[in-house]
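Journal club side-thread
Mid-discussion, someone asked how the predicted structure for our own chain would compare to the paper's figures. Pasting it here so we can look after the session.
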Amino acid sequence: MLVTSSPREARRKEEPYYVCKGITAEVQPNRVDEVVAISKDSVLPAAQQQQGFKGGLWLTNPDTNKVMVLTLWESREDLESGEASGYYREQIGKLGDLLAGDVVREAYEVSIQDQK
């Protein structure tokens, strides 16, 4: 009997395989720069200390007062351990007064990655 793996399972065996957490939020008017400063000085260094953290992008749109954060993790387990340990809640708490509404978060598998 021939056993084959699905394309998804094959990608997981390739190096590197990452999971991405996408977070989007609306920021209080004219406070995007403050979110960036806190993220750079406090949130990113805390993320760098988490097991499995591989990097991230902080995307902002000052015209719409929106921010999107994409973080890369070595595994879904690493991503989820930050939720269970309180790490995620602590980081959102640092931005609490600057946010205007709910934070939307979703996890994705990185299917294609290209960097120069």
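Post-session note: Strands lie at 19-26, 53-61, 66-73, 104-109.
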